[in-house]
Write a structure and sequence with these properties.
single chain; 438 residues; Spore Coat Polysaccharide Biosynthesis Protein SpsA, Chain A; nine-stranded mixed β-sheet; four-stranded antiparallel β-sheet; 31% helix
């Protein structure tokens, strides 16, 4: 065959025809053991090809080049993305954020950003990054314990500056009054006796809180206004133990108390001295009163028991002969209030019957509950809240209020007795005779 002339080939030739409008030619492909050539019919080389083994190597190299190029592209894209995120987010004006949300510092924001970047790197290795802490407060199990703030306070704060510099003095005691504007002079006299250690909170049952601005101290006080509600209604809703946790003592007082002979700081000293968790100032003899236990004595600083009328006390360590104060002017330690708050019923707003149950919150009650004689007050018995009632069936407003007070006392006793019964039966114990009823 012509393509094999002068060549040492062991393979046949492949004839390839190519049509050209201007020239017809025949090309031959020559195969050899060491090379392959494409020649024209005249024997002139047209293109030299690689060896057959080289052809396979070239295909392999191209494949590897494609793989390497793809891999390099992925790495480049990842590095580019990291650089972009590092360049873009740190450029956010953290000072602006801090100014807008004064509770956040630049340092805190940078710490959060660093934590988020660290978490992103960590998540590349591990997927189990969800937080669940069963010991956290209910509903907060998904939060890291270090961020939890389980309680609060009633400290008022400014809207500018550094949060840590908001409070020059942190009040240690909380004084609350349930008030109507008509008793403003009484309240003004009481508040003026308070030192900077006291935080003042007024509960307004007549809807007139703005009128108290005539007093300079009122501008620093906290005002809560809901019409025609009692102090125990307010206390249950606004004095949760976790809200008043910073205060050593909580005063929950009526509005009709004369304080000419009362010094709050001295009162606190005596309460601490005698270890009282629940207390009240003694009542002057000319006060309207029901119980001997709360009458002021002139020969002692504090008393914790009393001689009541015959038959009133079956046990000298139980109310009303001991472990007893009235609900007009009680003072609670932080720990005692945490218990008492849970005892207050949502619907029994007058609190009648609480005074006989307070002893359940301290032990021994006849030692932890007492009356401070050296600091005493006058109960003026102004029936201001009674006038907030409504006339029904020919009864005056105050008559309807008084009737509900008595009914609530009975209802509270019944609930307590039933709760004790259910508890003891669940424990497999014969229920004792309840001592809550009077």
């Amino acid at each position: 065959m012509e393509c094999g002339v002068g060549l040492n080939l062991k393979m046949d030739c492949l004839l390839v025809k190519e049509w050209n409008p201007k020239l017809y030619s025949v090309w031959y492909v020559k195969f050899g053991s060491s090379s392959t050539e494409i020649v024209s019919k005249m024997g002139n080389p047209i293109r030299r090809a690689v060896t057959s083994s080289g052809w396979h190597l070239r295909r392999t190299n191209e494949t590897m080049r494609l793989i390497i190029t793809t891999f390099v592209g992925i790495i480049f894209g990842f590095v580019l993305g990291v650089n972009l995120s590092s360049n873009i987010f740190p450029s956010v004006d953290l000072t602006y954020i801090e100014d807008k949300y004064s509770g956040l510092s630049t340092e805190a924001l940078l710490n959060v950003w660093s934590a988020l970047k660290g978490r992103r790197r960590f998540s590349c290795k591990y997927n189990n990054t969800k937080i669940w802490v069963p010991s956290n407060p209910r509903g907060a199990e998904r939060l890291p314990p270090g961020i939890l703030v389980a309680d609060s306070d009633l400290y008022t704060r400014r809207l500018w500056g550094v949060p840590g510099e908001d409070l020059i003095v942190k009040p240690r005691y909380l004084m609350t009054f349930t008030v109507g504007y008509d008793q403003k002079d009484n309240i003004d006299a009481a508040v003026k006796k308070l030192s900077e250690n006291f935080q003042v909170l007024l509960f307004h049952y007549d809807g007139r809180p703005s009128e108290w601005d005539e007093f300079e101290w009122s501008k620093r006080a906290i005002h809560v206004s809901v019409r025609k509600q009692t102090k125990w209604w307010y206390a249950k809703r606004f004095l949760h133990p976790d809200i008043v946790a910073p205060y050593d003592y909580i005063f929950i007082w009526d509005e009709d108390l004369g304080v000419e002979n009362f010094n709050p700081e001295e009162y606190i000293k005596l309460v601490r001295k005698h270890g009282l968790d629940i207390s009240q100032p003694g009542l002057s003899p000319n006060s309207g009163m029901t119980w001997e236990m709360t009458r002021r004595r002139e020969d002692t600083e504090v008393h914790k028991d009393a001689e009541e009328r015959p038959g009133w006390c079956t046990d000298p360590h139980q109310p009303p002969c001991a472990a007893f104060v009235e609900i007009m002017a009680p003072v609670f330690s932080r720990n005692a209030w945490r218990c008492v708050w849970h005892m207050i019923q949502n619907d029994l707003v007058h609190g009648w019957g609480l005074d006989f149950a307070l002893r359940k919150c301290v032990e021994p009650a006849h030692e932890k509950i007492g009356v401070v004689d050296a600091q005493w007050i006058v109960h003026q018995t102004v029936p201001s809240l009674g006038n907030q009632g409504q006339e029904e069936e020919g009864k005056a407003p105050w008559e309807g209020v008084r009737e509900r007070c008595k009914n609530e006392w009975t209802m509270f006793q019944d609930r307590w007795i039933e709760a004790e019964k259910v508890y003891f039966e669940a424990m497999g114990i014969d229920p004792p005779n309840s001592t809550i009823r009077y």
